[in-house]
Fold:
Amino acid sequence: MGRRHKTFFVLEIWSTQPLEEIISEMIFDLGGLGMEIGERSIRVFFEDPSTRDVAISTLVAFLRDLFGQEAIAYKVWELTDPGWELEWRKYFRPQWVGESLLILAPWHEYKPIPHVQTLIMDPGPAFGTGRHATTKMCLMALRDIRGLYPDPWSVLDVGTGSGILAIYAARLGACDVMALDVDEDALSWAKRNLALNGVGEKVILSCVPVEDLQRGFDTIVANISCDVILELMPQCIKRLKRGGMLILSGILESELGRLLKASPQGSLDLYSVSFQEEWACMCLKRS
Structure:
């Protein structure tokens, strides 16, 4: 019997707008494997049916909000192709975050560069490969605040996804890192990425709710949606040590006002805000 070929799910998009740069920034964080640029359309490939539907609806809704309902047409179909599963790798390029952090996939060849840290991230179905603006801003925020906290530095990553923020915290020297996610598949993928970066013994992965934690942290980072942040903020503040930093992203610039209004006055001070594209990252320091 011949080898069984994998089935891929293809989202094909037609638009009058230039989509390549926008889509390339999003597809891997949404669990996509890669894309092909055609003469009149762009094809985005997915393998995992459990994440496919959410990813496709998220991507299409985002593009239609950006360009208008009539500017985007699409269809979804299946492809059985024994060779394409390796071809998509060429679209996953090394990603710089600032000038001192380089994110690579396991198959990338790399020669060490002085004063540059590297993270090895397998682009699976979990969110967070360093390509999305919110992930980049959280990574830079962790780097920027590192000097504020002497060892032992403790970090809580809420909604860890691929584990990238927890991994980087450990690589920056945090010796006490906990990464939470309600998605057990995401935790499995995060475990693989921890091992790829040699920090498997430094980071605790858990699906325990924030409210069940019985301890505090110097830094809490949450790269999730604005609505979830608003829901979890009181629990996060309770677990943030005095002088600790709360790093929040996954929020649109237009949503900053909602978060600032929800921040308890007198207990959190605005430390910094950064922007990339339409996204924002806010750092709040506990008084």
Remarks:
- The longest strand covers residues 240-252.
- The chain has two domains: 7-90, 127-286.
- Residues 49-67 form the longest helix (19 residues).
- The mean pLDDT is 87.
